[in-house]
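Reviewer 2 asked us to include a model.

Predict the structure of this chain.
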Amino acid sequence: MLTWTKADNGLYPLLADFTDHYPRRISGSDVLEKGLDWIIASMRADGWDVRTQPIMVPNWKRGNESLSMTKPLKRTLPFCGLGGSVGTQNRPVTAPVLVVGSMAELRQRSAEAKGKIVVYNAPFTTYGETVAYRYNGASEAAPLRRCGRSGAQCWTLWHQTVHTGAMGYNDSLPKIPTGAITLEDALLLKRMQDRGETMELQLSMEAKWMPDAPSRNIIIEIKGSELPNEVVVMGGHIDSWDLGTGAMDDAGGCFVTWRALHMMRQLGLRPKRTIRVCFWTNEENGLRGGKGYADQTKGEKHVLAMESDAGYLHPLGLRVAIQGWLGKRSRI
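Predicted model (structure tokens):
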């Protein structure tokens, strides 16, 4: 298998062709569904018996968006709304700014936050800790009744780069617009605040939710020779955010598992158990593809499930993180 893999050069051109023609595959978009059609046709041309699972997915539209500084300087700031954010209700929001370094600081300065756009300028620690500002930041600040939030994307390392991703709301609290600015601009605003300068931003977002839309999971498999009713499923999520190609996150994960199945067939390898590849839809802002797969395969016996969604560089090994799940099962 290693010899075949090292000699194979078919994966990258296939992935590049797909992501060049079908980038920005956010759930509910035409480009996602056309991309799925392309994959199904390509798999059938490769000799696979393809089946799909119908899935209804969330349908969030970004629309036009902009952020500009109006005081003390006039300049346009790179900005993107976070996935799932509400918009500014067809009118721009203009307000003073409060920069805080943590949610705890925001609570301590709650009196100052009223009527202001709050910028989180939190240092990156780990993804697991820092992502809380992206996902929970709006709900954390909503009780303070300030007019908006612009979340500093403090874990980016690239010059003037903004980064979208999923955010959430507490349905019992007001929903306020939320987005990401660059690390450089977050630090600029912090310096201005420290100098006592009066800062004002103008935010405009057309983001809105539309009715759920139809999508699909895509499945191919090699039937097991001895235990065909026991399934090993692997794959990736084929949707992506709407600001990039979605090659690393996560078309690559889908295509490497497809290619692995292709390799097994080319080498004449017949697994004991059924090896299944699934391209799951709607991971980024709903997980409905994975949940729908689980619901629609309840009667099947799965012995192992794997998703490739952690980047596609040189493989370093295989790690199974199950310590928390094991618990009392640790003696197994």
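The chain has ten helices and 13 strands. The CA atoms of residues 32 and 206 lie 21 Å apart. We have added this to the supplementary material.
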